[in-house]
Specification:
Largest sheet: 6 strands, mixed
Order of helices and strands: HHHHHHHHHHHEEHEEEE
Oligomer: single chain
Strand order of the largest sheet: 2-1-6-5-4-3
Distance between the termini: 25 Å
Radius of gyration: 20 Å
Number of strands: 6
Mean pLDDT: 95
Structural class: alpha+beta
Number of helices: 12
Low-confidence stretches: none
Length: 294
């Protein structure tokens, strides 16, 4: 029989993982935070807790903030661009527009540009709709300070997030056209789909070959992709999958899984390509990860 503390934790586990993941961009670190949250939770006197959900989120947030600060040093030493860890997600995540946008690769990268406390406040306020008082307790600030931080973070994110909300159907249609051009090494087909200011980021983490800097512009990105495939003389196959609540491509090279490519679509064209090849970041794409806002 499950003890009450375990029952409460399990009931909120998916929410706590989603909070930690959105704050950290790493499933592995989010799992570590949940383990620490559990260890602290079982030591709490349940009779002193008025709102179990809020209390657990508070523990998770504080631990995630600590982890964010240590991750900063890891990212500074990281080889090449750092991309969030992709998650194969359940169908209900894709159906929830707000949740799918909040965990999209494009928005997760925008969150990377926030300071740790700003990111925590933005995630708790804008994504999970916690009150300023609850957030203040979680981040150790006054409600007035949290309100100011939330306003600053929202302004920062709004200036950098995709300008329009694109449906999963539209994204999938563009992605499938990209898929055909990619497999056919059709440079003109790729150029027709890439926005003039498209940016390609590839994350090999020093383990797999990847561009050490972002590749900017349709012509450069198109040549980089087609030239890379041709030079390597590989057989490339792809499949559409749902990653972070959005359509993405799973790439296989010579029959072996190679990585996940997520896209950012605006105005019917691709403005961002995010290719994760680092094997350490591909452990959560074999089975679905449940995420939730509640």
């Amino acid at each position: 029989m499950t003890d009450p503390a375990t029952g409460v934790f399990v009931a909120h586990r998916n929410l706590l993982f989603t909070v930690a993941y959105e704050m950290l961009g790493s499933a592995a670190d989010a799992e570590d935070v949940l383990q620490e949250t559990w260890l602290r939770w079982v030591e709490v006197d349940a009779h002193q807790v008025r709102d179990e959900r809020a209390y657990l989120v508070r523990i998770t947030t504080r631990l995630s903030l600590n982890r964010l600060r240590t991750m900063k040093r890891r990212k500074e030493a990281y080889v090449g661009p750092w991309l969030p860890e992709p998650l194969l997600t359940t169908p209900d995540v894709a159906e929830n527009v707000e949740l799918a946008e909040s965990v999209s690769m494009a928005l997760m990268l925008v969150l990377e540009t926030l300071a740790p406390t700003e990111r925590a406040v933005f995630v708790l306020r804008e994504v999970f709709e916690f009150g300023y008082g609850e957030i203040a307790e979680a981040v150790g600030k006054t409600p007035a300070a949290v309100r100011q931080i939330a306003h600053r973070a929202r302004r920062h994110v709004d200036a950098r997030r995709p300008r329009e909300t694109v449906s999963a159907r539209e994204t999938r249609a563009v992605l499938e056209s990209f898929q055909r051009a990619l497999e056919g090494q059709d440079l003109q087909g790729l150029l027709d789909l890439l926005a003039p200011d498209v940016v390609l980021m590839s994350d090999g983490g020093g383990v797999k070959q990847a561009a050490l800097r972002p590749v900017d512009g349709a012509a450069k990105v198109g040549r980089f992709i087609v030239g890379g495939i041709g030079k390597a003389e590989i057989e490339l196959t792809t499949a559409v999958v749902t990653v972070n609540g959005n359509p993405a491509l799973a790439l296989h090279v010579d029959g072996s899984f190679d990585g996940i490519m997520a896209v950012r679509v605006e105005g019917g064209r691709i403005t961002g390509l995010y290719y994760v090849r680092n094997p350490e970041k591909l452990t959560r794409v074999a089975s679905e990860t449940p995420l939730t806002l509640r």
